Amino acid sequence: MLLIGMFDSPFVRPVAVSLKLFGIPFEHGNWSVGRDFERIREFSPLVRVPILVLDDGSALIEGAAILDYLDERVGEDRALLPRSGLERRTALQIAAIATGAAEKGREQIYDRVFRPPEKQHEPWVERCRSQMHGGLAELERICRERGNGRWLVTDKITRAEIVLTSAFTFLTESVGLTTESAPYPALRALVARCEALPEFRSTRVAWAAPQA
Q1: Does domain 85-201 have CATH number 1.20.1050.10?
Q2: Max Cα–Cα distance, the chain, nearest Å
Q3: Entry pTM
């Protein structure tokens, strides 16, 4: 099994963390969409990561689809997404908000890196920044209401915490979310607890800015 994509990506890292939590061995293709565009195209017509190449050579694309496959593979008792009901909806909602915030952070970076200075549009960047903080504020509210030292959905870690942590760490490093500019104390406490786990520590790498 081969996981394609860099671990500094908030979309690739949840797959890597989940594979490690499940104890599923995998190889890591540390490929960049910028540097390895044609190589990645061989596995995905979208040329997006993550991609999970299975042992039979077939390739799964898009993080949510890959995570669903992994949950199905390990069975209901070990799955990281609750089976049904309010817990499932809550986990999916948290993951969706965190993913959306990460996407808005990525758009800020792309505007700065890939547009020439005369084409950069600060009102657009500010709107993305506002949307990002809107999502983070909602995640802070959820973390605060759930309480310090508790998981967000059930009595164990779920997809919600994995996606949230990957997204927040990415945003902290890529767009510079400091404790002064973006306090979010309850959110930061949860992320710190997750980042201390071995599955997160082993997939934590310094963020590398994309090259134009």
Answers
A1: yes
A2: 54
A3: 0.94
